[in-house]
Amino acid sequence: MKLEERLKIFNQGLLPNKVQLKYEAMAENAFRFFRGTCHLFYEDLAAAEPLPLSPLAWICGDQHIENFGSYKGDNKLVYFDLNDFDEALLAPASYETVRMVTSIFIAFDNLDFEEEKALKMAQLFLKTYSATLAKGKAISIEPRTAKGIVCDFLTAATKSTYKDLLKKRTVSKKKSIMLSLADERHFKLDKPLRKALKAHIGEWIKTSSDGPYNYEVQSVVFRLAGTGSIGVKRYLFLLKSTNTKNHYLLLDMKQARSSSVAPYVPVQQLGWDSEAARVIGAQQRMQNVPAALLSTTVFQGDSFMIQELQPVKDSIKFKQLKDYRDMYQVIDDMAALTASAQLRSGGRQGSGTIDELMAFGLDQGWQEAVIAYAQRYAEKTKAYYRAFVKDLKAGKYGD
215: which strand partners? Predict the structure, then answer.
């Protein structure tokens, strides 16, 4: 099947008027294309010669170097950790590493680093990942324990305030504030949908044990974010406190689709209540401390995740990592956090036990196969990207 058909088939379930924006985002560079085509990666991996055996683990599924970032846990501390679980499921542990290592090769190529440096960084990731597994002890990273650019990143994140966030996202209107439509990530909603969403979240606030107390909905817009998730139904709500003057809360409500990894993983999955329950369930077992205010809801037949839009929440962008020494520390941290997420969730509902994960970490026999496949797939992704951009310019993906 042609690349064009594969992409169109996967994206046909998304909002038609937003799919073109997704394609435009994917055309930015090969790394952005890789981010937006997680389904291609696993479809190709399933058809390739199998990787060496590895224990089952809970994986985020769409692992790459921009899926790590800062967030505030429900204990009020700021952490650096994995931060995207839309594709999360139970799968061979090596699936997480091979996608991450592929992202390293693609990102380094985009940054014009020598191939030898990319290889050394891939080897570092697998070395630290394996060493962390072998110890059997999960680690966490917060401002007091962070080093290098991650420390700078977290320190800057902790200084971000709700006032800063509101200033970026809102506009004053008749002695109150509303979500700004001047923000390029915000889109106006039709009046009936806007009214239905306000009523739904208003009811959720009243009835859900996860919801904030004493708030009412002030305004709502369609929100655009990410790359792979462009085109899903996603809304941003501004809530106003009913008992504290000038106190606001921003809520993100994002549609949860089935994991694009699932069709290519020959593993029995849990019978989650909903796709949103799968995403949040994986997040809560893999992160050191879960993010504050996580919930699920069903709106007009679709499953949604609800979480607070935090001023401290941000992802590291690979273009920020132009210094090789900075990159070394970041990749080392990401490797330890990847292994830690698997250790925290080890032995739970089908995943390998801690002892099995430790044994996998001690085994050096699988690493070369992961690097070799990642190198080949990075080249394949670049070829996909060139073909995609050519077809996009030729109008094959619509106006």
Answer: 241
